[in-house]
Amino acid sequence: MLLERAYAKINLTLNVLGKRPDGYHEVDMVMQSIDLSDEVALEWLPESMEIVMESQATSIPLDGRNLAVIAAEKFLSAANLTRGVRIYLTKNIPVAAGLAGGSADAAAVLRGLNRLAGHPFSLDELAELGAQIGSDVPFCIYNGCAIASGRGEKITHVQPALRSWVVLLKPPLYVSTTEVYQSIQADDFSNKRVSSAMTERFAKGCTLAEIESLICNDLQPVTFRLYPEVAQLHRKMQSVSGLPCHMSGSGPTLFTLVPTQSAGQRVYNALRGFAKDVYLARLFQPNSGG
Ligand code: ATP
Asked: Which GO-annotated molecular functions does the record name (predicted)?
């Protein structure tokens, strides 16, 4: 049995640059892993050719619609293997939350099966396979901090990255990423790419306060229009925490960055006064002890 962690991500920037002829939107984003994670356990099934998936989670399909199962199918076919696999997913990342939970699971399956199979593919090759599953999967192959462009699948690694803690609030509703992208109006396009300005500030060692003003998300007004209760929770989160709050991806998860764990704990306690799904996490950089 082999274990792989699947890390959630937040968007520090998300600019939508336009709609492409293939129907996807051209985006420019700073993506950052956080140490809120799922655990994926993998093993070969000796006497079966099936992909069997189990999980303690009741809110996701465990059949061929699950991105983890799709990832296993893609891997086996690309590696020319006819083998059975068992996937056990311990789900901690909230579902349909704008935190790329499904993409993270798919990426963990690709990395894990690659280890089980004796590393037939490089990480870059796994990212190419991942791009066929979903736009966020390549980022989740590498984790850390990166600029993601194209439809989100083109990854430029960012070093150094921001060191901080994050408090997340997941509003009690599902948001469809497709619906949010389909509801974008002409005014929502920013025609700005804030990612390089932000990563330049990381390189200069700027403080969290100096980074804060660049955090942006062009999808935030779209999701707030579609789901006014998210806008209402955003206002409440800002007034209770006394800090700027932002939305990740297409939402509805809201987050605020804090410099220390103790500051994060104070905000966490305050938010728990009115919201059930609140998380305190750390920005995660691979190979730096988390
Ligand atoms: P993104 O921002 O990339 O759209 P998200 O965090 O908003 O991702 P997910 O948690 O990945 O959303 O879930 C989106 C949809 O994908 C849900 O409807 C869910 O049923 C489906 N799904 C498929 N596989 C998984 C998985 N392994 N974990 C969670 N959801 C999954």
From this structure: 4-(cytidine 5'-diphospho)-2-C-methyl-D-erythritol kinase activity; ATP binding
